[in-house]
């Protein structure tokens, strides 16, 4: 890796993590050069970023937006324009020192796997990739010599305090969770909460899908699976504790009884900066932690009745086979239906649970079969969502 100036591709440049990443690049102009930027369909935002950062390639995933992007970048002949799934993969394939994987959902799987396969430093925010294809991704990274740097704040915290010289000395991991906006909500309100209430996260400013996942705590369930793959730890050694202040980002417990944690304010630019600068540290403008001002930190165990998605995710990890992939696909479908106003909040866990009961659980052996199993699980979840939407109409 070039330490004078690092080249970087951002997959999912127009999202919340993409924006935090590019904010840090903007503040460290000389240290990074942008190779490729991608977005789903927000052409104007992508064009503005491309005009600012001058990548070699700008890609919009939605092929129907190709001409819009081409027109928007007509005055930037140095920026090549692409559209569609193959162009996303082409962006990931372009030589760069680092790739930030910040697409949301399994849609990011193919381009992320392309980046993993070419042997680079992959900064992983797109946790759904690991949930869908963790074994394949870890094996591919090992084979290709790709370094995975976790951007998810909990995994980044663990990565920062993990003693890699003595892997056998790690006894347990604790992932902290804010508990989301519904930690204290009376349970009889759950049936009628709106998408806007669900995305109003108390501590973090994030994309809509992960915000709903935080409200159901599916996010923490996905993160248990993510931690299992990243740190090679079995489910029973990965604990979850609710910590509403979101100051301790996670903890590593060692065999001697020592516990190491990483702390900081709730700003994704801190873990992202750790990855961008790794193994050195980048300065950030993030608010500094003021412990006396904070006063106290509290902790509580997550309840199964309030947060069934967390427990479904752990059960899926322990079941193995295709269960984690099916869980993720069903959750993506259910969250989209909830955000679209078609189903209620409680239908999310019900659809995930129903899909897990009916889907094929055979473990896929290659990326193509992961994608087929993902599509099959989505079809089942869509049918379940339609049935529920019809019931509540
Ligand atoms: P977001 O919705 O704000 O942004 C998602 C990005 O992916 C956008 O650039 C969008 O254009 C792109 N995208 C969406 N659908 C796509 C598709 N079908 N094909 C190609 N591109 C597509 O999401 P986010 O909050 O930035 O989260 C991104 C990922 O990072 C998620 O996996 C999330 O779980 C993870 N993450 C986010 C945060 C956070 O604070 N936002 C924290 C930890 C982990
Ligand atoms: Mg997280």
From TrEMBL:
Domain of life: Bacteria
Chain sites annotated for binding NADPH: 14-17, 41, 126, 128, 207
Domain 1-deoxy-D-xylulose 5-phosphate reductoisomerase N-terminal: start-end pairs: 8-134
BP terms from Gene Ontology: isopentenyl diphosphate biosynthetic process, methylerythritol 4-phosphate pathway involved in terpenoid biosynthetic process
EC code: 1.1.1.267
Cofactors, names only: Mg(2+); Mn(2+)
Sequence positions that bind Mn(2+): 152, 154, 223
Record key words, sorted: Isomerase, Isoprene biosynthesis, Magnesium, Manganese, Metal-binding, NADP, Oxidoreductase
Pathway participation: Isoprenoid biosynthesis; isopentenyl diphosphate biosynthesis via DXP pathway; isopentenyl diphosphate from 1-deoxy-D-xylulose 5-phosphate: step 1/6
Cited function: Catalyzes the NADPH-dependent rearrangement and reduction of 1-deoxy-D-xylulose-5-phosphate (DXP) to 2-C-methyl-D-erythritol 4-phosphate (MEP).
Family note: Belongs to the DXR family.
Protein name stated in the entry: 1-deoxy-D-xylulose 5-phosphate reductoisomerase
